[in-house]
Amino acid sequence: MRPADAGLWALTDKGHSALTKATPGIVVTIFMTDKGAALWGHCEDAVGLLDDNSLSLVFSSPPYPLLRQKEYGNLDEREYLDWMLRLAEQWMPKLAKDASVVLNLGDAWRRGEPTLSLYQERLLIKFQDELGLKLCQRFAWQNPARLPNPAEWVTVRRIRVKPSLSRSP
To answer: What is the pTM of this model?
Structure first.
């Protein structure tokens, strides 16, 4: 890591290469300051190292429940919801009273249909009903370079438009 600006850090190529070799069960401390620390590892492994009521922010972009299997591994929608709920259950005792959870949940399409999965909505409902978490705000950002997705419905059959916005519930 190298300092980029005051209070900001950028990961060097060497650091990125080393971190991508981390395996499940290994948690690496990236940096520590008097204001907190950054850890690199699987959430399931890292959360156990935290003190109760010490976490002010969970900021994550977990793998999406995509139709095609990816090399990093991804679950189908039902397994994904159960997995995310189990993760969030582990966070609960670690969260400070005024903590926030920010998740980047990408769109997932239904197999063989030009329709979106409702997994994001189902997850938010589970988080509220089963864990007592509340939805405070949604974030959206524009990515004009975003690829047409799903290609079959956007570029081949042309029955859906190319998305350029992403949102985080």
So the answer is: 0.75
